[in-house]
Amino acid sequence: QTKTGIALLYDEVSENAYDIRLKLTKEVLTIQKQDVVCVSGSDHSANHRTVTLRRQPVGGLGLSIKGGAEHKVPVVISKMFKDQAAEQTGMLFIGDAIIQVNGINVESATHEEVVHLLRNAGEEVTITVQYLREAPSFLKLPLGSPGPSSDHSSGASSPLFDSGLHLNGNSTSTAPSSPSSPIANEPKYEKRWLDTLSVPLSMARISRYKTGTDKLRSNAFEVLALDGVSTGILQFYTAQESADWLRAMSTNISDLTLQNIKMANKCCSPSDQVIHMGWVNERTEGTDSSQLYKFKFLALKGSSFYIFSTPPVSTLDWVRAEKIYNLCEVLFKIHKLWLADDYWLQANLYLGIHQDFDLEDQRPYCFSVMVGHGKSHYFNVELGSELAVWEKSFQRAIFLEVQRTGSKTYICSWQGDTLCFTVDFALGFTCFDSKTKNVLWRFKFSQLKGSSDDGKTRVKLLFQNLDTKQIETKELEFQDLTAVLHCIHSFIAAKVASVDPVFIDSQSIARKYMYSN
């Protein structure tokens, strides 16, 4: 149930990454950072610890250091040697930043200055330390507990190499000094992973892209909670680790979304149920023709397709959508899938509605929803599995709406006459005079053999006469031709699905991708 692992938290400002531990439960992602805590004894503050080390004839201070002001990081303890002075105190830890040496503040000191101070500080060295919770990953500090080290000589001092202070300093005494050891009533300390941020996963969203761009982060992503709180950039050591965590978090978010849908549907009538909802990225055109992406929350509910900037939490929120479209009058289309060997597949729906999309963007898992008046929305999701769910959900929502509605009638005209054109799930197509209600012609869905349009208002529908087997052409003009064509597509697809559901499943582009992968 709970997944844990080590990752890096990347700071875009400093361009440093810090070691963190992730803890994932069904409902929450927790970020933990290491810190030193007082586990017994009366300690006012575990933040600053002052420790006196007695230099030993063999092993010196028993520690190594890294870092320095020249690299914009404090000097930190990078190694501690088993059973030697530093470790015996029980109060020092790998990752402790050295604040003072014998009362001298070294927070702004270079690496060499601190090495010099420690090596020439005499038999007893008093140091004040504070655990560096955000140690840059380039220091390569081990996360585990201190253990024996085979490193006996550090060579040249460098912030990226350990300067060994386990060698003897300028000691004149030959008598062995008593080892540094904790006094009985002194506080005891431990290094522990502590919770620093908890991100609720209900309605949370994930982004693998640099904000608003097509630039994919390498083995990294960000999780944003419903209230906008961000984990920051979570970076992983391998592509496999990144994929595993992405999948695990997405699964948990999806499971919580399903719970939210069930809760919402308890308050909705059977004809107004939520079929699916979730976060996507919508492509928008910038002022300089650049492509920008913004988070949008989509929902398929009852007879409508909703686009929100933030998820609907209460019943009232549903009327606050940015856009609402009738499901019979939209057309879902998968645009691009990056397959295993990096080629992409464009899906063409069999009605053959022409489109002029620029497919130059670098994002995989794209789909568009074409709406009335020739307009469209272009979306992207993070995972192929999400794309498959959206494809299936749109299909189901549209089919349910067609069956519920039964028929749609549109006002149209031809040669100056005002007519009505009806698409009916049971009867097919009917055209009648709007005033007299006289039926001018009627055809079944199976009689429609083709169509062509001028991309504006006029459409030609080609029907086969059942008696003569001849093709009859019917021309009509509509105010919103796109909506009518989408409606025809929805009704025909729903009719096919009711007769042959296996065929509809076999047409699923995203699901084919899922199986091939």
UniProtKB/TrEMBL annotation:
Residues 143-160, 171-182 have a biased composition (Low complexity). It comes from the Eukaryota. Residues 143-186 are annotated as: Disordered. SMART domains: PDZ. It is found in: Cytoplasm, Cytoskeleton. GO terms for molecular function: actin binding; structural molecule activity. Coiled coil: none annotated. One of its GO terms (cellular component) is syntrophin complex. Pfam families: PDZ (PF00595), Syntrophin_4th (PF23012). Keywords: Actin-binding, Cytoplasm, Cytoskeleton. Residues 50-133 form the PDZ domain. CDD domains: PDZ_syntrophin-like. Belongs to the syntrophin family. This is SNTG2 protein. It comes from Smithornis capensis. The gene is Sntg2.
